[in-house]
């Protein structure tokens, strides 16, 4: 049981790190390509406004940061459901 908890903590922390560091870059650069220039002064201001929203506990910012973990968990639960229904 302890091994599973450690593995889940590693998965959560690595996906959280991905959501905080790499996902905002992707959102910024894809948004800049699709919608045009960001209204601020670049990526630094974009990341700063995201960090401010995370600190102020705005749910949309936290959803963005946690979305990689939530996506993985959704896939895992769906897979588990399909496997258990196939065994019936």
Describe this structure as you would to a colleague:
With 88 residues, this protein is mainly α. It has one domain. It has helices at residues 2-35, 43-55, 59-86. Helix 1 (2-35) crosses helix 2 (43-55) and helix 1 crosses helix 3. The chain is elongated and about 55 Å long. 6% of the residues are buried. The mean pLDDT is 92.
Query: What's the β-strand tally?
Result: 0
What would you call the shape?
Answer: elongated
Structural class determined from secondary elements: mainly alpha
Rg = 17 Å
Number of helices: 3
Strand composition percent: under 5%
Number of domains: 1
Helix and strand succession?
HHH
How helical, in percent, are the residues?
Answer: over 70%
Low-confidence stretches: none
Largest sheet: number of strands, sense, barrel closure: none
| Straight-line distance between termini | 26 Å
- What's the rounded overall pLDDT mean? 92
Secondary structure elements and their pairing?
Layout: H1 2-35, H2 43-55, H3 59-86
Key features of this structure:
single chain; 88 residues; mainly alpha; 0% strand
Short description:
The protein is built from three helices and no strands.
């Amino acid at each position: 049981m302890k091994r599973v908890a450690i593995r889940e903590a590693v998965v959560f922390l690595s996906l959280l790190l991905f959501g905080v560091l790499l996902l905002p870059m992707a959102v910024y650069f894809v948004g800049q390509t699709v919608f045009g220039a960001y209204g601020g002064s670049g990526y630094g201001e974009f990341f700063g406004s995201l960090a401010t929203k995370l600190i102020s506990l705005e749910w949309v910012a936290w959803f963005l940061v946690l979305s990689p973990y939530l996506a993985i968990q959704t896939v895992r639960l769906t897979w588990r459901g399909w496997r258990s229904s196939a065994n019936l």
